[in-house]
Amino acid sequence: MDQNAPETNDIPDVVVRRLPIYARTLDYLLTEGKSSVSSQELGERINVTAAQIRKDLSWFGEFGKQGIGYDVEKLLGHINRILGLTVNWPVVLVGLVYLGQAIARYAGFREKGLHIVALFDADPTKAGTILNGLPIQGDEEIPRTVATHGVKLAIVAVPATKAQEVVDQLIAAGVRGILNYAPIIVQAPEGVWVRHIDPVSLLHSMTYYLAREQAT
Amino acid sequence: MDQNAPETNDIPDVVVRRLPIYARTLDYLLTEGKSSVSSQELGERINVTAAQIRKDLSWFGEFGKQGIGYDVEKLLGHINRILGLTVNWPVVLVGLVYLGQAIARYAGFREKGLHIVALFDADPTKAGTILNGLPIQGDEEIPRTVATHGVKLAIVAVPATKAQEVVDQLIAAGVRGILNYAPIIVQAPEGVWVRHIDPVSLLHSMTYYLAREQAT
DNA sequence: ATGTGTGAATTACTTCACAGCG
DNA sequence: CGCTGTGAAGTAATTCACACAT
Questions:
Q1: pTM of the model
Q2: Taking 80 as the threshold, does the pLDDT of residue A209 lie above it?
Q3: Which end of chain B, N or C, is more open, meaning fewer C-beta atoms within 10 Å of its C-beta?
């Protein structure tokens, strides 16, 4: 439902999905001046058991010191390397109505190795407009631009009705990972990863519990 | 890491999280004019096995007809009832920089029973500004407004450094479910649900696989 | 003492496979 | 037949608990 995990034996996807959270938290610990952290302490910050953190990390090596814990900076470096974040990743963004514009302006991507290098929107009246330093291009430019930048990652923030079409174009152009904000599960072939962001579904999964309580 | 699931024995949270996706897809099927659907067909749209859908639904009752499948409209009604979506849920939104503004303007919440009833931002120069028909209030108004509307759900789109503080205020005011867009895992007491949206982490979980391939 | 790394045990989730109904 | 609902079987993920290193 969420992603198509092609033959990536070895490490479970749940583990991979937790690594970025560990990295983010180590980053915060670093800015707080902490140089060392135990799995216990790290776990408390993110509601994960200490054992889980240790087991997750053990898939990749031995990064801790018995009796001490983990060196924050070193562990962060290890995780960043594991996630392929020693290089910057060019990313394209498709769909520039409100949400897309907000994404284009968000500094958090660039700070974390994700550089938005091109913006696309199907609306021809937007073409040429500069947004956060980048010109908006028409969707027909996707193939050329994706190819010239060697872009592997895309963010899709178009209406649900257009999402599959845009995703197909992106994949045809060479994109291999897609972050989809449209409220629809898009299909992708083997070898392409897709992650969905669906705030309405997340809220609905909470109304389930809240509705239940009121009845009690 | 993602949510604190207090004593909600019975139905697994993974199941609850899939229900909104089923509902959304049934909705699309309905607009496409389909009146009946099999678990197989529904599953193909969202990359879930037919058995999983049947098992998930069986937690709540028997909604299908052997040899036929499910009546789209009826099943949608059942799921909406299960999710507590027979009523509208008032929601407040805190944080109105770019992302928050985009959220405030997004029509998709209201269409799905989630009515944004109040907007808050800590920036006093924003106070009083009308956004999408609602006045922006200062954070100090949170307790009164949340109480008068009986708000149980909140969306948080403030910077990471402010997120925990805002969440604490919201919970103190009576909020029981929080959708957090800030890139930090916020803490909440038993009985409060939290869901996180973290695009950077999702992208990083894909760079992991992409980096691996290039090496191959 | 303290806290990691890890097999073993446990718990949770998914898929199988088929009886039974329309 | 065709497709649901569901126990049973099979996988996967998490937690336990402890040997061992500092």
A1: 0.95
A2: yes
A3: C
**Alpha-carbon distance B104 to nearest alpha carbon in chain A (angstroms):** 10
Given this model, what pLDDT does residue B177 score? 98
Say yes or no: B85 contacts chain A, CB-CB below 8 A.
yes
Residue A178 C-beta-side C-alpha neighbours within 13 Å: 34
Task: Tell me if B84 and A212 make a contact (CB, 8 A cut-off).
Answer: yes
Contact A1 B24 (CB under 8 A): no
**pLDDT tens-digit readout, A40-78:** 999 999 999 999 999 999 999 999 999 999 999 999 999
Asked if CATH classification 3.20.20.70 holds for the domain at B89-201, the reply, yes or no, is no
Question: How far apart (Å, rounded) are the C-alpha atoms in residues B180 and A92?
Answer: 24
Instruction: Using alpha carbons only, give the angle B170, B176, B180 rounded to the nearest 5 degrees.
Output: 65
**By the 8 A CB rule, do A21 and B201 touch?**
yes
Q: Which amino acid is at B205?
A: S
Residues A110/A112/A115/A121 CA torsion (nearest 10 deg)? -80
> Within 7 Å: CB of B51 and strand C?
yes
Residue with tokens 């018995």: A66
Locate the domains of chain B by residue range.
Answer: 8-82, 89-201
For residue A2, pLDDT beyond 70: no
**Chain D bases closer than 7 angstroms to a protein Cβ:** 1-7, 12-17, 20-22
Binning pLDDT at 50, 70 and 90, where does residue B6 land?
very low
- Across the interface, of B19, B114, B203, the residue whose CB is closest to A208 is B19
Q: Whose CA is nearest the C1' atom of nucleotide C20?
A: B66
Helix (H), strand (E), coil (C) string for chain B: CCCCCCCCCCCCHHHHHHHHHHHHHHHHHHHCCCCEECHHHHHHHHCCCHHHHHHHHHCCCCCEECCCEEEHHHHHHHHHHHCCCCCCEEEEEECCCHHHHHHHHCCHHHHCCEEEEEEECCCHHHCCCEECCEEEECHHHHHHHHHHHCCCEEEECCCHHHHHHHHHHHHHHCCCEEEECCCCCCCCCCCCEEEECCHHHHHHHHHHHHHHHHHC
User: Beta strand pairing status for B130-131 and B134-137?
Assistant: antiparallel
